[in-house]
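ASSEMBLY PREDICTION REQUEST
Request ID: AP-0331
Submitted by: J.K., bench scientist
Number of chains: two
Total residues: 221
Priority: normal
Notes: Please return the full assembly, not individual chains.
Input sequences:
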Amino acid sequence: QLVESGGGLVQPGGSLRLSCAVSGFTFETYWMTWVRQAPGKGLEWVANINQGGSDKYHVDSVKGRFSISRDNAKNTLYLQMDSLRVEDTAVYYCARDQRWFDFWGQGILVTVSS
Amino acid sequence: EIVLTQSPGTLSLSPGERATLSCRASQSVSSSHLAWYQQKPGQAPRLLIYGASNRATGIPDSFSGSGSGTDFTLTISRLEPEDFAVYYCQYGVSPKTFGQGTKVEIK
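STATUS: Completed
Returned structure:
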């Protein structure tokens, strides 16, 4: 089970930290990913991280603003989002990453608006 | 970055008909990195196919995937009412990408 939290309404330029609490599999042995979906739009991969947290990749549109991380002791994945823009408004999903994404959270809405 | 282009954008079919969805990559990719998802309104995506042709756990055999190189296909052999949804293909090497989706709607 993957459960996201930390979403909500934030003003442009603001920050949020999303969390994804994981249970039901051995978290520390899997890559993890964040995917987002703007209202009425398709899916966009945002970032992923390897098992130990040493390898991270981010889509170009969020580089320098978003940072993925994980705490294996807490079975939790994070997405730190800074300098938020209106176009970051989306439902954010965390997912287990095996090149494909086989387990997904239910998603959390992030709204960036003044 | 690999760009995935799905066609058609919308497929209007009746229950019981066969659906054929296409996903074209901007350059040749390994089939081991190609996956397909189904998404219904208000729900998270569900993995259908991984490695281009392997059904995920619990996916009925009415769903099949094929293809190689730049051209991949998802086939639904006989549409059930619950199969009307949006379908996405996805490339599995970072930066990972999705196609823009194909909506399968009831005719």
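REVIEWER COMMENTS: Chain B has a mean pLDDT of 97.
SIGN-OFF: pending second reviewer
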